[in-house]
Design goal:
The chain is mostly helical and 654 residues long. Helices cover 46% and strands 5% of the residues. It contains 29 helices and 8 strands. Strands 2, 4, 5 and 6 form a 4-stranded mixed sheet that branches. The structure holds zinc ion (ZN) (6 copies). One zinc ion is lined by residues 205, 207, 212, 217, 219, 226, 229, 231. The protein binds a DNA duplex (12 and 13 nucleotides) through loops.
Amino acid sequence: MPPSCLLFLSLFLALDFPHRSEKKSDLYLPAAAPCGGSRLYDLNCGAGDPFRCFGGFLRSLQGSRSIPELRPDNMSEEFRFCDEEWSKVLHLQRRLISLRGNSSASWISQPRRAAEAPLRRLVCRPRAVAATEAAASHRAGFSPHVAPVNFFYFRGRSDIENDNDFFVIEFYTNTCKPESPKPWSQDSRPANDTKVGTPTRKKNCNCKNSKCLKLYCECFAAGVYCDGCNCTNCCNNVDNETVRHVAVEATLERNPNAFRPKIGSGTQTLRDSRDETGEPLFGRHNKGCHCKKSECLKKYCECFQANILCSENCKCLDCKNFEGSMERKPLFRGDHGSTLYMQHAALNGAAGAHIFLSPTISRKRKIQDVFSCTSVNGQSTKSFTQSKTPVQVSSSTPIPAASSTNTAPVASTKVIYRSLLADTVRTEHVRDLCKLLVMVSGEVAKTVADRQIEESSVLEGHVECSPHSDYERDQSQKDLYMPRTSADECSSGISLDKPDKEESRSECREREKGGKPVSPGTLVLMCNEKDMIFMASQAAAADPSSSNNRSTSEAYVEQEKGVLTKFRDYLLKLVTCGQMKEEKYRSMSSMHERACHMESALYSIARNSVPATTVEIPLTRTSSPAYSTNICPPVGCQTLGNGDMKLKLEKAEM
DNA sequence: GAGTTTGAAACT
DNA sequence: CAGTTTCAAACTC
Ligand SMILES: [Zn+2]
Ligand SMILES: [Zn+2]
Ligand SMILES: [Zn+2]
Ligand SMILES: [Zn+2]
Ligand SMILES: [Zn+2]
Ligand SMILES: [Zn+2]
C-alpha cells in the first residue's frame, strides 16, 4: 500500500465526526423492540465488529430514552438520532478508537471499506429480510459493503431460531469510490487531495464463468460488489443480492474463514517487520502457500504477492521466499508491499506496539537450513516440524537467555553473532523491568483516577461499551470475529483470568511449557496482539471504579506515557551498556566485526522503541514502521496501543 | 491482445 | 482427505 493509503487510513481514524454536523441526518437509529427488550438486537457491522459496542449503546439508549416501539409495520422505519444521542455515538466512537488504538484489528479491520466511508447509517430489521432489503438501502446510496462479513454474524447462533425474531442492526457506510469523492472528505480535506481520494483503487475482476460468486472472483473474495469490472454474467452486485447471499453462505459453509484476511500477523516481530533494508516482512499467510513451480518468487504465490516471507504454514516446494534468499533480493518490492499486503496487515492490526528486547534471527528458511539442507519444504517434514516449536518460542521471546536455553540446537548450529546483551539482560531483569513498568502503570492510573474522579459526566454514564452479555452470548462466535492468528493464540491468553478463556489460557500455558517460564509481565511484552474485543470488555470490567469512559482513556494515555518513558530509560541504559561492551570487544581486534554487527542490532532495538533522535516519547506508538505509525490515530484521538491494555490487565491481575 | 503458466478454489 | 477439475490472475510473447 502506498504511503498515501497510510495517510488515508490515519485520516480515517482521525475523522472527527462531531464536526460533520451537516451529516447528522445520515445517521439513523433503529426502532426499538416491542416486547420490553425481549428481542435480540445486535449490531451487524462486519469483521471484528468494531462497533459492537453500539449494541450496548443502543440498548442503554432504549432503556433510558423513548424510542418508538418497533412493530411489525414499522420495524424497518428509521429513527434519527437527536443531537444528544448523536453526541453519545461520537463519544463512543472516540472511546473505541482510544481503547483499541492503532493496534485495533477491528477498527481498521476493513481497509477496503475503511477507505470508503465512516459511519453513516444504522438500520434495524429482521434478519429474515436483511439481505433483500439491503439492496434497497444500497440503491438509496448506502452500501452494505461489509455484507459478506455480516453473514458471519448470522451463523451458528443457537439462540436464534427464527429469522423474524432476530433483528439485525446493520451498519451502513456510504460507498467510497475513487471516482466519487467521499462526502466525509469534503470537510476534512481539500477535494483535490487525490492522493487520499484514491487510496485503494479496487482491482476489477475479469471473471467469466464464476458469476463472481465464487472466491475465484477477487471482488467477491474481497467482500465487495463488483463495480467497474469486466466480468461477464456478474451476480456480485446489489441487484443479485439474494443469490449472492446464498453464495456467501455456501462459501462460508466450505470455509468459515473465507472472507477473513489471509494474511495474519505471524510470529515475525515488529523489529523484523522492517530490517535494515527496510523490508516489510511482518505478517504471514494463515494457510500458507502450496507453490510448486514458482519458487514463491512470483505473484502466483500468495505469500510473495502479499510481500511476506513464506512461513511454517507454507507447503511450497523449492521455496526461495525466505529472508536472506539471494533469489528473492532483486525481486523484493521496496514499496512496502502490495495493496493486498497492506490490507491484510491492517486487517489484522499487524502493526502494533511490540516491544522486543532481542533481535530475532529465526526465519523459516534459516531453520530449514539448519535442520536439513534440502530446499524442498516437505521433504524434511519431520525435522522441520520439530524445529518449528523452538523456532516460534525463540522468535517471540524477548529474552535472549530464553532462546539460548530453549533453542540450543538452533543457536549452536548457526548463530552468526551473539547479542551483546545476551549476558546483560537476564530473565530476572526483564521480570523486574516488567514489575517496574506495571508499578508505574498502576501509579499513573491511580493519579489520573484521582484527578478525574470528579469529572464524571452524566452523559458518559449512559454510554455502555462492549457489554459483557453481548460478548458472552456470542462467545462461540468469537472465532468469527477475531482473526485467529498465531499471535492471537499467544496473546489472548495473556494475563487473562476469565474462565471463559480457558482455551486461550491453555494455549498460553503450552507456550510456557514449551518455552521458558516467564513472568506475566514478560508475557505481556511478548505478545503481538490480542483479542481486542475481549480486552476491551475485560479492561472495562477490570476497572469498575471507572465507569467514565473518557477517564479510562485518559488514564490509559497517561499510563502509556509513564510506562513508555520508563521503558525508554531502560532501553537507553541498555544501549549505553551495549555500547560499553561493544567498546570492550572492539578493543579486542579479533572481535571487531562482531561488535559492529551487534551495534546495529542493538541500535535497531532502541530505534524501534524510542526514536533515537529525540528524548520525548511520541504520543504515537512505539512502533517504528511508517506503516503502523501512520495508521495510528493522531494525538487527539488518545490512542492506546497494545501495551496499554496489557499493562492495564496485568495491573488488574496483580 | 493472445496464449501459457500457475496455484487457489471447487469439486468428486 | 486426496486427486482432479475449474478458474482467473500472473506471466510470457
Ligand atoms: Zn469477478
Ligand atoms: Zn469484480
Ligand atoms: Zn463481477
Ligand atoms: Zn509460495
Ligand atoms: Zn508461502
Ligand atoms: Zn514458499
